[in-house]
Design brief:
By secondary structure, the chain is mostly beta strands. It is built from 1 helix and 23 strands. It has one domain: YVTN repeat-like/Quinoprotein amine dehydrogenase (Methylamine Dehydrogenase, Chain H), CATH 2.130.10.10. The strands form 5 sheets. The protein has a 6-stranded antiparallel β-sheet with strand order 13-14-15-16-17-18, with no helix packed on it. Pfam families: DUF6528 (PF20138).
Length: 314
């Protein structure tokens, strides 16, 4: 497929860093990141939405949206943006209703199910999805207790992805590719683990490195520290932690419970989503919290995940 480089670059360009399709986002001076964009999963309307941090989270201010519909796509549980050589920027999404998939980010402001490049049903309440670069493999984390690996016959053809491996991980909630270590991190019940990736295409396999960090509770979110490539940020039942990737140690930075998403921007600002314990969907909340900026509340919303709208890995 021919790349629409200019459209992709325009669609994802952010004050912090301009996107060149087919290349990773380069970090710029943090003074340019004051009004960076946030991408969220909103479960009331079941949409993935992008907003400028410094604007109200209203329909009129939505920079982009993706609405995959209902059925297996209900209760959107994860989203992230990655860069590819063939398509430019793509979106990865997981839904607790059972589906995971990839959609093609175009210049269109409001996107729907027909923009999907690929989808699958790994089962077990999918909570996260990640792409392994160069290989093009996809890994989904399902809270039913496993990781599912999908391998393609060609990196440039997501439609060729098929299940090639299932890896047991009780309570699997998060996955993250680490370009520095060349590991895939995964978080589950009382553990954060690192896996190597062997093989290519349909022969792609995860192998447990034996390296892990023990947690006290059920692991929830797993994100890079965009201000420090040597660290990860994770959440579990009992709080929020910084993880030193080399020493495999953790430091608790908050005792706040029910944190479903926690991100540190390259500027050092943190933002997070905490379940409000209110029906319906007590795991969600109408508010995205910021450490150095006004919190953003969308009336009637139930946010579950919030991410920095960037293709950067760390």
């Amino acid at each position: 497929m021919e790349r629409r480089t200019l459209l992709r670059g325009a669609a994802l360009a952010i004050p912090a860093a301009g996107l060149v399709a087919g290349a990773s986002v380069a970090m710029a001076d943090v003074s340019a990141t004051a009004n960076y964009r946030i991408i969220v999963t909103e479960q009331t309307q079941n949409k993935i939405m992008v907003f400028y941090k410094d604007q109200a989270f209203t329909d009129a201010n939505a920079y982009k949206t993706f609405s995959p519909g209902g059925g297996g796509w209900h209760n959107l549980s994860d989203v992230r943006i990655r860069d590819t050589a063939s398509f430019g920027a793509i979106g990865l999404a997981a839904a607790s209703g059972g589906k995971v998939g990839i959609w093609d980010i175009t210049s269109e402001k409001h996107q729907e199910l027909n923009d999907l490049l690929w989808s699958a049903s790994p089962g077990g309440n999918p909570h996260a999805i990640e792409r392994i670069p160069d290989i093009g493999a996809i890994v989904a984390a399902s809270s039913g207790g496993y990781l599912t690996v999908y391998g393609p016959t060609a990196v440039s053809k997501p439609s060729t992805l098929a299940k090639v491996q299932t890896v047991n991980l009780p309570g699997a909630h998060g996955v993250l590719w680490d370009p520095t270590k060349k590991w895939l991190w995964a978080i589950g019940d009382k553990v954060l683990k690192a896996y190597t990736v062997t093989g290519t295409y349909r022969n792609t396999r995860l192998k447990d490195t034996g390296k892990k960090v023990t947690l006290s509770g059920m692991g929830h979110d797993l994100q890079p520290d965009y201000s420090n490539s040597g660290k990860l940020l994770i959440t579990d039942t009992y709080g929020v932690y910084e993880v030193d990737k080399s020493a495999l140690t953790k430091k608790q930075i908050s005792e706040t419970t029910r944190v479903k998403a926690y991100v540190r921007h390259s500027s050092g600002e943190d933002f997070w989503v905490r379940g409000d314990n209110k029906e319906p969907r007590p795991w969600g909340t109408p508010t995205v919290n910021f450490s150095d900026s006004p919190h953003r509340t969308r009336s009637g919303a139930k946010f579950y995940k919030a991410r920095w709208y960037t293709t950067a890995w760390n």
